[in-house]
# Entry
Amino acid sequence: MRDYEYLIHLLYCFIHGEAPQEKPGEVSFENVYLLARAHEVANIAFLSVERLSAKPESVLYNEWKLSYYFSIERDSRQTIERQRVISEFHKRGIRTLEAQGTVTKTLYPEPYLRMMTDIDLVIDKANTDAVMQALVDLGYKITELQEGEFYADRDGFELDFHTDFFSEYMFNRQERYHKAINSPFEHAGESPDEKLSYYLTDDYFYLYSVLHTIKHFETAGCGIRRILDLYYLNKAYDNKVDGAFIDNVIDEYGFRESYERLFALEGMWFEGRETELDLSEAIKDVVTSGNHGNEEIFTRNNVRKDIESGIRFARLKRVYSFIFPSLKYICLEYPECRERGYSVRRARLYRIVSKLKKLSFSHALRHIKEILKSK
# Structure
């Protein structure tokens, strides 16, 4: 058994209330913990580790235990801050919609078990300036990522804001995710308990949750936690959504292959189902992506999209874009270039110097090789 397989076993046993098997000799507790932490499921895995007769050595065990209690503390802090921010918006007549982690965590046995990096909120585009002003008044610093999306940070606490489910364009390519589902508030209703708080209908929350996972999977990769989300999503919405509607959207916009692979993986890992699909690449991608994907998967998947789109010399063009990115792309990575009004030449020089401080030329060469070998 490999380290990741034992982690999946620990998660499976928690889900189904089963006692886990003792750690096999070839498995490293330290590697399992580090992997679990990278995928933000260390807290759940700990609840299975607690049931083992032979636990990790004391230093690692205590660190793992702290990660469990940290998830409880983080959930508490995020819950309090979420209410503080939303209440301020509502006082100013700004409506909000929640469709990611703050809703997904309610599907888990306990909300704190589903960890969140930040809190995502959907707002009306017309309210963007009012939202930013409210955040500044609350002590937040604003960073604009792209049109219709920005995030706010206050002492390490992050909020992510969107004006639609997905951006219409990504890296100058029109994305089918936006075509498949858009205009969030048109598919939502106001909460009877909290005026100006909106939540998606069951059909659209289920569809958006699935497409959001597919987008991560097809872009830079998605981690184990997102596959676990699919398990709890299916469990909560079984027989509650219009299956024909979901299938029509999945097929019309070309999501069927990714959809089947992700749910086959979810079924194999967390429901004990067998599959005839070859999931070897999907498993490697999910396990190695961590919680937010990685550069190698991102590069390979984008080269594939370029080739499928019929772009000539796709690999060479990607290498050129890596060496000479657009000003817009640089400003996404280094917002200070926008703030300082840098020209594209100056921004490229700034990017090179910044990367040299953190990365070696060997890293850059390795990235270029990844582009050229992508298939």
Summary: The longest strand covers residues 141-146. The chain is about 60% helix and 10% strand.
